[in-house]
């Protein structure tokens, strides 16, 4: 449920898997101590809380807490099209679209789970912490005390920047000095409210914001490349806006919504007919919609990153690719030539048969098709042939995306590429474009989730059938509770969520992206994105990105491999840099300077100068900080932020100004 709340908050946070891990350990060991182990109780408490039980709980809880794209699209239909799906249809649709991805994952196991090269760097910290808790001694009294002290400290601290003194969420000396007088200062340095600015040099003391950058968990190389991208983003985004790139100078600096030629919100209801198709006659009067310059640049950078990632993988990881694809062995059920010790040890457990994954895949597609024909008043949300096409396209692209994630830990979004493809397949139809994202983009990510969990199970020797079962249970629970929470929040905060800018407390920027794409790319794809049209460069950026890594690779090949220049060129990850150039023009941005400082301190100074302390406490610290901040935010959301419909404003003060944004950088 906290993950659903974050979907409608300005901060783009997620529920920490490390927090789920620690809480599961604490509760599991406590239950073993309290529950009797004799008689019939032995079925509930057969022995000490062990590594395999712990892994199963972590997989199930993290699966349930993941926010499904289906839920976000259902919210967008409700907010912007007044299409309210039946609760059963909505829940089955969310669950079915997740299961389609799991079916695909079954085919890819021999390619993206069993081999050694598929090691999923982002999961190494999870595996290390699990093994340290169960193999190198339990979470002893000292470590437990450390966890709970930090948990309590951040719990009691986090409510201060979140509620009575929000200035601490984005503290900027430049904004304090300007006091909201100049728009340029707000755009470049502002960061306290939704879509206020890109937050240069703004410092946050709110862990709810800081944890978005996962500074205690991400490897230093990934963080450094993301920081390089952000610093380039400060320059590029600001320069493009003030240079009137994409003709966006008279629009707001940041927003994922659509605007008309005057800078007001685009009147999409005027150009969409009652059967949700383009009204060409009305379009001549209303005119074409426009993106903010920063949002257009962001989409362009995402597509550049996608193109660059493909070339990057082939240039830098060709040996692994050749091994993986040789003879197309990953399509076979067995993979006898895999020389991986984890895989060999797992062969003692029975696998989930391939026919189970195939049946799950086919049944899920059938349910998804049925739900798409069960819209209000018999509205067809997406035709069956299109669902099948985008599902199979997602299955193919999952091979490439999965290899990138398995070998580098970097997740690439293909949502803009899918939306552009759908725009030309379904011209003049906004809702099918929205659903193409669900079956084309979301399916690939659900595939990766199960593959990563299967690898986690392989590392910890959890039987594959148990991994599969807990994943299914987590998905069912998540679908029900996420939908219920979404309906509550949307019904109680409808006006704010539809506002193009949002507030410090609530923002619809996530679901607005789907709506903007459905109108701009769905209804008006040929008018806006065809060659020579206003935003033609956005789709073509995917092809441009294919060539960008080549000069860096050639320069590396010509250098002495031992030279600093060669090491520096190999250290750069161009897809990450390109992605993070367009990372900033969303939500709030007061945390990134803090992320940079904490990330370097943790992953460089502590890891190299205090390795013993780092190994013992770094990930426990991350879990405690994430957990305490997420619990208090969940409480505040219902107690005072209006998730239940009754918001309670804190009295205005120096740290909570009435007529200025919380960082005093923008007049309200």
Automatic annotation (TrEMBL):
Keyword Isomerase attributed: no
Pfam family, one: OPT
Compartments, as annotated in UniProt: Membrane
Ranges that cross the membrane: 12-35, 55-80, 87-105, 111-133, 145-160, 224-244, 355-375, 387-412, 468-490, 535-556, 618-641
GO MF: oligopeptide transmembrane transporter activity
Keyword terms of this UniProt record: Membrane, Peptide transport, Protein transport, Transmembrane, Transmembrane helix, Transport
Main location per the UniProt record: membrane
One GO cellular component, as annotated: membrane
Protein's GO biological process: protein transport
Membrane topology (UniProt): Multi-pass membrane protein
Family as reported in the entry's similarity comment: Belongs to the oligopeptide OPT transporter family.
PANTHER family: ISP4 LIKE PROTEIN
Protein name: OPT oligopeptide transporter protein-domain-containing protein
Source organism of this protein record: Mycena maculata
């Amino acid at each position: 449920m906290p993950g659903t709340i974050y979907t409608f908050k300005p901060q783009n946070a997620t529920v920490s898997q490390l927090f789920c891990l620690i809480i599961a350990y604490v509760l599991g060991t406590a239950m073993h101590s309290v529950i009797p182990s004799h008689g019939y109780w032995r079925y509930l408490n057969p022995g000490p809380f062990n590594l395999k039980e712990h892994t199963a709980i972590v997989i199930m809880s993290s699966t349930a807490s993941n926010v499904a794209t289906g839920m976000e699209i259902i919210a967008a239909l409700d907010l912007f099209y007044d299409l309210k799906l039946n609760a059963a249809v909505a829940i089955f649709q969310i669950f079915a679209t997740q299961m389609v991805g799991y079916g695909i994952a079954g085919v890819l196991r021999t390619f993206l789970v069993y081999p050694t090269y598929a090691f999923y760097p982002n999961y190494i910290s999870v595996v290390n912490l699990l093994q340290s808790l169960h193999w190198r001694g339990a979470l002893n009294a000292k470590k437990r005390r450390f966890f709970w002290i930090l948990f309590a400290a951040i719990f009691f601290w986090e409510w201060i920047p979140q509620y009575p003194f929000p200035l601490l969420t984005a503290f900027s000396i430049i904004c304090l000095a300007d006091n909201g007088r100049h728009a340029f200062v707000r755009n470049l340095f502002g960061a306290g409210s939704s879509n206020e600015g890109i937050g240069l040099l703004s410092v946050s003391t709110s862990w709810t914001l800081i944890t978005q950058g996962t500074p205690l968990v991400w490897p230093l190389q990934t963080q450094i490349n993301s920081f390089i991208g952000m610093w380039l983003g400060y320059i590029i985004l600001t320069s493009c806006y003030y240079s009137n790139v994409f003709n966006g100078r008279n629009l707001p600096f940041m927003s994922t919504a659509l605007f008309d030629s005057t800078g007001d919100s685009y009147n999409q209801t005027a150009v969409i007919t009652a059967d949700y198709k383009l009204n060409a006659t009305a379009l001549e009067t209303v005119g074409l919609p426009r993106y903010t310059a920063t949002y257009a640049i962001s989409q362009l950078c995402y597509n550049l990153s996608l193109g660059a990632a493909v070339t990057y993988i082939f240039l830098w990881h060709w040996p692994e690719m050749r091994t993986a694809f040789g003879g197309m062995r990953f399509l076979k059920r067995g993979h006898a030539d895999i020389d991986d010790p984890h895989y060999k040890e797992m062969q003692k457990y029975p696998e989930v048969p391939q026919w189970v994954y195939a049946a799950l895949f086919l049944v899920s597609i059938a349910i998804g098709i049925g739900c798409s024909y069960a819209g209000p008043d018999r509205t067809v949300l997406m035709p069956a042939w299109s669902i099948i096409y985008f599902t199979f396209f997602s299955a193919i692209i999952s091979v490439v995306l999965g290899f990138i994630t398995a070998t580098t830990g970097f997740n690439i979004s293909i949502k803009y590429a899918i939306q552009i493809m759908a725009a030309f397949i379904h011209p003049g139809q906004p809702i099918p474009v929205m659903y193409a994202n669900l079956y084309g983009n979301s399916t690939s990510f659900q595939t990766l989730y199960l593959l990563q969990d299967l690898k986690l199970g392989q590392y910890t020797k959890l039987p594959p059938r148990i991994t599969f079962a807990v994943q299914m249970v987590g998905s069912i629970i998540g679908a029900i509770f996420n939908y219920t929470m979404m309906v509550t929040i949307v019904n109680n905060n409808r006006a704010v969520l539809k506002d193009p800018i949002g507030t410090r407390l609530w923002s619809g920027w996530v679901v607005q992206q789907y709506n903007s794409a459905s109108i701009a790319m769905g209804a008006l794809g040929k008018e806006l994105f065809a060659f020579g049209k206003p935003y033609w460069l956005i789709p073509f950026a995917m092809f441009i990105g294919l060539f960008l890594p080549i000069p860096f690779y050639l320069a590396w090949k010509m250098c002495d491999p031992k030279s600093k220049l060669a090491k520096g060129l190999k250290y750069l990850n161009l897809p990450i840099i390109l992605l993070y150039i367009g990372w900033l023009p969303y939500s709030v941005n007061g945390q990134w300077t803090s992320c940079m400082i904490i990330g370097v301190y943790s992953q460089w100074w502590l890891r190299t100068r205090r390795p013993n302390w780092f190994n013992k406490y770094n990930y426990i610290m991350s879990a405690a900080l994430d957990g305490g901040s997420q619990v208090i935010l969940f409480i505040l959301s219902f107690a005072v932020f209006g998730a239940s419909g009754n918001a309670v404003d804190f009295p205005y003060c120096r740290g909570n100004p009435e007529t200025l944004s919380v960082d005093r950088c923008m007049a309200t």
